[in-house]
Amino acid sequence: MASNKECLIIVLDVRNCAAEEFKLKSVKCVSEIIKDKIVSDKKDYVSFVLVGCEESNNELYEANNRVCQNVLQYENTQLCTWQLLLRFFKFVNATACDEGEWLDGLDVAIAMLHSAQPLKCARQRILLLYDFNFMTQRYDDYDKICNKILHENIELIVGSHNIAYIDNAETNQPQAIFQFTRKSNIHELENQKHALQLVSNCNAVLCSFKETLASVFKVSNRRPWVWNAKLHIGSQISISLQGIIAMKNESHIKLKKVWGEHDELVEREERFFIKGTEVTPLPEDLIDGYMLGGTPVPYDETLVELPPAHAPGLHFVGFVKHSSIPDAYFCGDSLYMLVHQKGNTSSAQKLDALVRALIAQKCVILCWKIFSVKFNTPRIVVLIPQESKDDSPATLYMQELSYHAQHQFWDFPSLRTEKTECNKDQLKAVDNLIDSMDLECTLKDTQQPRQRRKNDLLPFDGLPSIFEQNVMDVLEYKVISKKKDEELSDEMLKQRNFVDVFWRVPEPIEEKSKQAAAALKKLFPLEHSYAWLEKLKAKEQEHNPAPAIKQESEDTITIDSVGLMTPVQDYKQLLQKVRSELNTTKRDAQFQSLAAQMRVVINTLLDRNKLDLNQLNEVIKLYRDSCFEFNSFAEYYQFANQLKTKASERNLQEFWHSIVVEKQLGPLVLGEPTLEDELRLKAFYTKPEFEVDDAEFQSDI
C-alpha cells in the first residue's frame, strides 16, 4: 500500500545573538506545526536540530569532532504526540552561545533524513528557521549541501522574521526579499544573499513567519485518488465512471468518540421515586434498554442486525429540470467531477451522448449514491452536465442534495419595504462599516514590501480556521497545565481570561468598527412607532371595508367611528353593529377595524397632559371585555405591553397603580390560569422603572 506520510526535520536558531522576538516566533511556529499534526491524526515523523548551543551532540560531530560544532540534535524522528510537544519545550531551552553555522544545521538535518529512510516516508522536508544577522558564517560547503538537497528531492522551507514580498516585475509573481535596514553590515548582507540563492540553487521556499505555517501545511497528495463507480439507468444502461474531487472543504481536526476518562466509572442507577417514595426493583423485574433523551426504550436484539448492503454506485431516479431545484438545496463538503473510466471507449460515448441530451433538454439527473459496501448510507445527489471542450471530455458534476428533514425554516421580519431606498449617506455608512473590519490593507503599489505572499485583503489560503486554532490552543493549555495546581487552573478558566485572549479583536480594528457601527445605527433607526402602525391598520381597514350585507336592524346607528368626546358610548354602539353581523369572517374583520380605532383613542387619551383616570378605566375595561368576547387575546396582549411601556416612559405611576394593577387590566387568560399564566401575569404587573421612588408615590397618595 502506498504511503503519504512525511519526515520533517526542523532546524532552529537559538544563538544568543539572535533576536528574542525571532526565537519566540520560531518556538510558536513549531508548536503550531506539532499541534496541527496531532489533532489531524497525521502519521508524520518530526525531529529537531538546534544551532547555537554550547553542547555539540549530533551524528556528524560524533563521527568527526571538527565538524558541525555547536549543533544539538534531538532524538530520532518520532510521531507527533503531546509528550513530544512538552519535550520540545524543554529541548529548545538548552544552554545557548553565540557560535553556530546554519549550513551545519542543514547538514545534520540531511543526515537525520538518511537515518529515517527505513520509515519509507513519501516526502522528506527540512524547515530552517534562522536569523540571518550580522554574525559571520562559513560557506565552504554551500554548493555541496545545495546539491544534496536538490538531488535527493528534499523540500527546503526557510523562514525568517525580516522577510517581505513584492511582485516580480517580469513574472508578476510574489517574490521574497529581505527588508533592508541602515544597520545591516557586510556580513548580514552576505548571509541574506546566500539565503536568497537557496531559491534558485535547490528550489527552496523563502517565506516570512506569517507564511511559514501555510507553506508547511500546503502538501500535495502524491496518491492520485479516484472513485470508480457505475451509473445505472434502468436495467439496460450502465456507464462506468470515475469520480474525482474537484473541490473540497475539510477540517484538519479529527474528533474521536470516547466514553470518558480512564478513571471514570459508569454505574447503572436502579432506584427511582414515585411521589417522593424511593423504590428499588428486584433484579428479575429489570429488562435491558437504553435512554433516548429522557425516555426509556426497551432493547430489541433485532435492531443490531444490519440490513443487507446496497450495491455501490449511482442509481438513477429520474430526469428533472435544472431550474426546478433551488440552489439552497445543495449541500455537502465536496464537489465530485465524474468522467468516463480511463480507456473505456464505450462508456465515453455513452456519457458524451447523455451529457449532450441533458444540455439540450436543460435537465439534470436525480439519483442516489452508494459510496462503497463499507460506507453504505444512501445519499440523494444531482448530476449536472458539463459540455465537452477541446481540452476536456464531457463530464458530470455531482452535488449532494439535502432532504426535507435537514431543513429548518426561519421567519425573519422584513427590513424594508419596496418603497424604501437608501440614500448616499446610508450606503457610505455601510461601506465604512465593511472597510473598518478589514484585517489587512490592499497595497496598490505591488513593489512595496508586504507581509503576505498574496496582495489581497484576506488571503483565504493563508488564514487558519479560528475554530481549529482555538481548539489546538485549548488542548495545548490542558496538556501543559495538567500537572499544575487544579484550583488555580479552574480559577483562571472561571475568569474567562483564557478564552478572551483567543477571541479578542485587535483594539484599533475594534474601535474603528464601533465608530462605524454607531454611525450606521443613527442612519438606520429601527424603533417601532406603534401609534403609526395602529393608524395605518385603521386606514387600511377603512379603505378596504368588508362588503356590507343588507340586514334588518331595529336601531339606526348614526356614527361610523369612535370619537374622543364619548368613546364609551360610541364603541358600545358600533360594537352592537358588529355583533349583528351573521358572517363570522366579516364580523371578525369589522371588529379588528373597530378595535384599531379604539386603541388609537386610548393612546390619544394617554398623551394628554391631564389624564381622566375614570374615563381611561371605562375605555380600557370595555376594550378588554370586547377582546375577550371576540377571542383577540394576542392583540390585547400586545396592547397591554404598549401600555406598560408608555407608562414607564411618561412616568404615569398613578395610572399604572390605580387603573392597570388595581383593576387587573393586564393580559387575558382563557379558563383557569396555569402556573405559567400566573408567572406571566406576575411579571407583567411588576411595576416598570419610574423616575420617582415608590415611597414618594405612596406619600403623595
Jot down its keywords:
single chain; 701 residues; alpha+beta; 7-stranded mixed beta sheet; 7-stranded mixed barrel; 21 helices; disordered C terminus
Explain how this protein is built.
It is built from 21 helices and 20 strands. The chain is elongated. The strands form five sheets. Strands 1, 2, 3, 4, 5, 6 and 9 form a seven-stranded mixed β-sheet that branches. Helix 15 packs antiparallel against helix 16. It has 701 residues and is an alpha+beta fold. 23% of the residues are buried.
Give the arrangement of secondary structure elements:
Elements: E1 6-13, H1 20-39, E2 45-51, H2 59-63, E3 71-73, E4 78-79, H3 82-91, H4 102-115, E5 123-129, H5 142-151, E6 155-160, E7 163-167, E8 174-178, H6 186-202, E9 205-208, H7 209-217, E10 227-233, E11 237-248, E12 272-274, E13 277-279, E14 289-292, E15 295-298, E16 313-321, E17 330-340, H8 345-361, E18 363-370, E19 379-386, E20 395-401, H9 424-436, H10 466-480, H11 486-494, H12 497-503, H13 507-523, H14 530-543, H15 567-579, H16 584-606, H17 613-629, H18 633-649, H19 653-661, H20 675-685, H21 694-700
Parallel strand pairs: 1-2, 1-5, 5-6, 6-9, 10-16
Antiparallel strand pairs: 2-3, 2-4, 7-8, 10-11, 11-17, 12-13, 14-15, 16-18, 17-20, 18-19, 19-20
Compact description:
This is ATP-dependent DNA helicase II subunit 2. The protein is α+β, with helices and mostly antiparallel strands and 701 residues long.
Task: Supply the helix-strand structural class.
Answer: alpha+beta
Tally of alpha and pi helices? 21
Strands, count: 20
Low-confidence stretches: 409-416, 457-463, 549-554, 693-701
Molecular shape = elongated
| CA-based gyration radius | 38 Å
Content of β-strand: 15-25%
Helix content: 25-40%
Span between N and C termini?
92 Å
The pLDDT mean sits at 79
Largest sheet, described in full? 7 strands, mixed
EC number: 3.6.4.12
Domain Ku: 278-418
Keywords: ATP-binding, DNA damage, DNA recombination, DNA repair, DNA-binding, Helicase, Hydrolase, Nucleotide-binding, Nucleus
Catalytic activity: ATP + H2O = ADP + phosphate + H(+)
